[in-house]
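Work through what follows:
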Amino acid sequence: MPDRILSIDGYLTERKLSNALHEITQDAWLGGQLKVPGTRMRWDMAFTLGSTTVVVEYDGDEHYRNALKIKTDRAKDQAAVSLGYKTVRFPYWIQLDTTTLEHFSGLEANVRTDFPHGFITTRIFPASFCGFGIQRFAGELDALPGTVRDSVIQSLQDRASKHGIEWVLPQQLFHLLSADTGGVVSHSQ
């Protein structure tokens, strides 16, 4: 792992992710807003990793709330597979650090952030997601490294303590904050 530390200040945005990946991949960087062949769609950014092209999408809250956006995401993912590309989808509720960089992209670098993982400043919680978004969130959360997953769950626990669990999580995800996981189950008044 390189000795140099890449620091990301504040909440991760698509631009900050793009700048960081560009700096990390350097000559392997393919740029941003790459056209999906045969469509009007674009991938947010891409780089090469060995002989593999990696397309990266920074997915904001619309990618969890809008079923047609999720349908488009799936079409882009299928296009990437047909071209032999690897797709990385980076959720808005995760920050870029050394652990998430390696988890999502397979890259190694010292990346530090001063902003925690999870639902810290956003008011778009999983309770606002559509059915497909809830399914996507649950799968992504389960696949995260333990420390990152724990941070996201802690953020949900904090938000549920403030707003009530039913305003933060859909009922099918209440188990994430159940007593046996150390979470909260209280409902708002």
